[in-house]
């Protein structure tokens, strides 16, 4: 009987020790039960800084030609237009190559090589940089050239280089492109800074313009070889349309092909906006100035008499303003309504 009682006491003692061991282990970090974070469905979301590109693997998107493009944290990027190069840097990216205007008009920060004029980028120079992503424009070469960067697509893809094309005319085009770039770099914070905040400012400017009397405007680009008129399908024309103006080139499309001072005098716009093209603003404006001064009727125009004949800054109205787009809108609003 004594033996049985001793065995029972030993059994209870063993159970007590086991219980203490379990409780002690539970208090230690290495022995605790699996937390919710260990289950895939309860993991915290990645930070905005990391995004889903740079730290989250490949990013697939559709460019402005409708092509599907996949890139995986590219580090050797070439941009073949200044505004595209600038936008890539605004998204937190760096460049190994860029078109000449990226240095001349946008002062990019990357230590990059030049790959030629944006109207005719040099394919050999691009490939020599061994890029893992090339950014191009799907628009025409401009400056009267018939060249197109789309002509380089086949050669680049044959070399195994991902290439994406963007056609940016309006602010929404820029915003969409910046969103794609920030997805690739994983920098949602830079999309907020250089995209969404700009969009919010523009929305307020457009709201302030709503309901105001719509003035008539004529937008002209002038260069040493002549003058052209812009309708609402252009960058500046689209901004003016957002601010509620009547663009006389929309109502008189013949102006786009056959510009004449006589037509302008007949239409008598409330505002005339002039955008100089080329490297020398004075030379660009000289041709128009000589033509207008030679016609006495020019001084009778409402826009001229009311000091509404305005030369616009080409950094905001000829080049894509990117993160300064709200400044472009505000400039036009101030001229029109203040």
Structural class: alpha/beta
Rounded average pLDDT: 84
Number of strands: 14
**Number of domains as seen in the coordinates:** 2
Q: What is the CATH homology-level superfamily of the largest domain? A: Nitrogenase molybdenum iron protein domain
CATH architecture of the largest domain: 3-Layer(aba) Sandwich
Sheet with the most strands, sense and barrel status: 5 strands, parallel
Arrangement of strands in the largest sheet: 5-4-3-6-9
Order of helices and strands: HEEEHEHEHEEEHEHHEEHEHHEHHEHH
CATH class membership of the largest domain: Alpha Beta
CATH topology of the largest domain: Rossmann fold
Which regions contain 5 or more consecutive residues with pLDDT less than 50?
A: 1-51, 141-146
Global outline: globular
Percent of residues in beta strands:
15-25%
Query: What is the straight-line distance between the termini?
Result: 108 Å
Task: Output the radius of gyration.
Answer: 31 Å
Helix content: 40-55%
Number of H/I helices? 14
Structural key phrases:
about 350 residues, 2 domains, disordered N terminus, globular, 14 strands, single chain, Rossmann fold, five-stranded mixed beta sheet, 14 helices, five-stranded parallel beta sheet, alpha/beta
Provide a brief overview of the structure.
The chain has 338 residues and is an alpha/beta fold. The protein has helices at residues 2-26, 82-90, 100-104, 123-128, 153-158, 171-185, 188-209, 235-242, 248-251, 261-267, 281-293, 302-305, 314-317, 325-337, and strands at 59-62, 68-71, 77-79, 97-98, 113-114, 133-137, 140-142, 145-148, 163-166, 216-223, 226-230, 246-247, 271-276, 309-311. Helix 6 packs antiparallel against helix 7 (188-209) and helix 7 packs parallel to helix 14 (325-337).
């Amino acid at each position: 009987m004594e033996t049985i009682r001793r065995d029972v006491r030993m059994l209870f003692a063993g159970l007590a020790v086991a219980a203490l061991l379990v409780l002690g282990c539970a208090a230690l970090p290495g022995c605790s039960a699996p937390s919710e974070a260990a289950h895939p469905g309860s993991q915290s979301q990645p930070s905005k800084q990391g995004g889903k590109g740079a730290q989250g693997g490949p990013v697939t998107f559709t460019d402005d030609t409708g092509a599907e493009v996949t890139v995986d944290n590219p580090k050797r990027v070439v941009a073949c237009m200044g505004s595209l190069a600038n936008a890539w840097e605004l998204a937190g990216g760096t460049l190994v190559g860029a078109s000449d205007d990226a240095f001349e008009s946008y002062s990019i920060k990357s230590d990059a090589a030049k790959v030629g004029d944006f109207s005719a980028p040099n394919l050999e120079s691009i490939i020599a940089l061994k890029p893992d992503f090339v950014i191009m424009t799907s628009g025409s070469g401009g400056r009267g050239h018939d060249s197109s960067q789309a002509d380089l697509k086949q050669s680049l893809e044959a070399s195994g280089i991902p290439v994406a094309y963007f056609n940016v005319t309006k602010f929404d085009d820029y915003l969409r492109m910046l969103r794609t770039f920030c997805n690739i770099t994983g920098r949602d914070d830079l999309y907020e800074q250089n995209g969404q905040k700009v969009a919010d400012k523009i929305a307020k400017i457009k709201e302030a313009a709503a309901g105001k009397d719509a003035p008539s405007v004529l937008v002209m680009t002038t260069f040493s070889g002549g003058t052209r008129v812009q309708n609402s399908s252009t960058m500046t024309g689209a901004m003016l349309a957002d601010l509620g103006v009547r663009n006389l080139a929309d109502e008189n499309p013949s102006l786009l092909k056959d510009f004449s001072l006589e037509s302008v005098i007949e239409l008598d716009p409330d505002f005339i906006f002039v955008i100089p093209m080329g490297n020398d603003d004075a030379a660009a404006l000289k041709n128009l100035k000589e033509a207008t001064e030679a016609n006495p009727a020019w001084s009778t125009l409402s826009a001229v008499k009311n000091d509404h004949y305005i030369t616009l800054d080409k950094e905001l109205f000829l080049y894509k303003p990117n993160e300064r787009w709200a400044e472009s809108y505000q400039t036009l609003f101030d001229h029109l309504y203040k």
